[in-house]
Amino acid sequence: MEATFELAYALDTFYFLICGALVMWMAAGFTMLEAGLVRAKNTTVILTKNVALFSIACTMYMVCGYSIMYGGGDFSLFLSGITGDGATGAEDPATYAPSADFYFQVVFVATAMSIISGSVAERIKLWSFLVFAVVMTGIIYPVEGSWTWGGMPVFGMYTLGDLGFSDFAGSGIVHMAGAAAALAGVMLLGARTGKYGADGSVNAIPGSSLPLATLGTFVLWLGWFGFNGGSVLATASVESANAVAVVFMNTNAAASGGLIAALLVAKMMFGKADLTMALNGALAGLVAITAEPSTPTPLLATLFGAAGGVLVVFSIVALDKMKIDDPVGAISVHGTVGLLGLLLVPLTNDGASFSGQIIGALTIFVWVFVASYIVWSILKATMGIRVSPEEEETGVDVGETGMDAYPEFTAK
Amino acid sequence: MKLITAIIKPFKLDDVREALGDIGISGATVTEVKGYGRQKGHVELYRGTEYTVDFMPKVKIEVALSDEIVDSALEAITQAASTGKIGDGKVFITNLSDAARVRTGESGAMAI
């Protein structure tokens, strides 16, 4: 038995780490997607923001975030006590190393923060964004994480788990949370110059590289197998191995359903196969299934993904009508569809209830939106959050980083 | 001496270069340009929003040549660049007062 346990411990830990590495790679996916959907003159800043936010997220989650989220009320700085052996000592012996859990959790924080980066692109001040990243990844996200995956009561009032709230890998906890912070930022920032005409017209601002946007989408798709697959938390038993395989299969099915649906809806609505809508559709399918990838049948997973793919197109068009300028569609992909994902859970998972899902979604959204709105407002009043009109016109790259992303292609 | 400035569809550049070569013209300068004419722009779609591209990409060819081959050069260019559809381009011919070859200092017709 001892040898079997050691093997299971090693295998679960290894699986956790590999899945964490896949999720880490989603940071590259977000970076390429965003770099493709902004104009060439704003590319260096989007790249800088993404590498910096990833590093800030990892550091702040180590400093205090992980402890706030999973400390169970016992706060300790700098992860004291989480290294070491998970097999011995704990009341409920885990089958993986504690530091593997930290590694897997930390890349989720970075994902939530990456979502914000795209929405505020092309006009935000680099350093204000990075200060926001410190607060978001160190406090705002870990607090709502403590109420959900951490199992703590919300301000001591109610416990979401008792109300039938269930979010398997984070449609709400990670994706909608990121979108809520992004929405608050976009509302305070305003739209990019030239996006909306005085007569209410919507102007297209085409992205610089659709190959990069497509590559980014495929990278995210790949990383998502770690995101959802790793959230099974184990693979070293027949039961958990079966669950992992179902989650991989359903995650893939939902992405495919989302892409096909968005492509068809865009063709019907606009008359053309709109590639970037289709890419958003694949991501919407992934977000929709993330709240519960383990219980639907493959057909249902495809249909859930397709529902996300349809919804995301309408959400993007609706946000534009409301003059909420989101260059990459992240608020729609992760927010609107994140909510859909939560609401789909009770259809296949008896452990979740619609009321629990709605209360959970409201709790996450209100907390993240209000806290973010306050932080963005403070930044706006102190450092300022928006670059000058001249800097926006010439591109934030030269103003913020002093460097063009493609110097040989820029007209001087 | 004359200077021929031809604005043509970009994908016709190789045909025009070959046609000029066939009549013995040994040099030209090519620039990627944008402009508009009767062809107007066209409509593209991005994330559900249509937008017009007002300036069409074209290629500008500049050739300096002696008076006696202007007519054949003009014919070569118009034939090679023609598709019969709107947007085929224009050819302008201007008088050229002088020219100089940088390497040797030759001038006038000797320089082209």
The number of E-state strands of chain A comes to: 0
pLDDT below 50 for ≥5 consecutive residues: which ranges of chain A?
A: none
Q: What is the approximate shape of chain A?
A: globular
The name of the CATH topology of chain B is: Alpha-Beta Plaits
Q: In sequence order, what are the helices and strands of chain B, one letter per element?
A: EHEEEEHE
Q: What is the CA–CA distance across the termini of chain A?
A: 71 Å
Radius of gyration of chain A: 21 Å
Structural class designation of chain A: mainly alpha
Rg of chain B, alpha carbons:
17 Å
Describe the 3D structure:
- The complex is a heterodimer of chains A (412) and B (112).
- Chain A has 412 residues and is mainly alpha-helical.
- Chain A has one domain (2-409): Orthogonal Bundle (Ammonium transporter fold).
- Chain A is built from 13 helices and no strands.
- The radius of gyration of chain A is 21 Å and the shape is globular.
- Chain A starts with a helix and ends in an 11-residue tail after the last helix.
- The mean pLDDT of chain A is 91.
- In chain B, helix 1 (13-22) runs antiparallel to helix 2 (70-81).
- The N and C termini of chain B lie close together (9 Å).
- Chain B is 20% helix and 37% strand.
- A four-stranded antiparallel sheet of chain B has the order 2-5-1-6, covered by helices on one side. A two-stranded antiparallel sheet of chain B has the order 3-4.
- The mean pLDDT of chain B is 91.
- Chain B has one domain: 2-Layer Sandwich (Alpha-Beta Plaits).
- The radius of gyration of chain B is 17 Å and the shape is elongated.
- Chain B has two helices and six strands.
- Chain B has helices spanning 13-22, 70-81, and strands spanning 2-8, 29-35, 42-46, 49-53, 56-65, 89-95.
- Chain B has 112 residues and is α+β, with helices and mostly antiparallel strands.
- The chains are: A mainly alpha (412), B alpha+beta (112).
- Chain A binds chain B through residues 202-207, 266, 269-272, 274, 276-277, 313, 316-317, 320, 329, and chain B through 44-51.
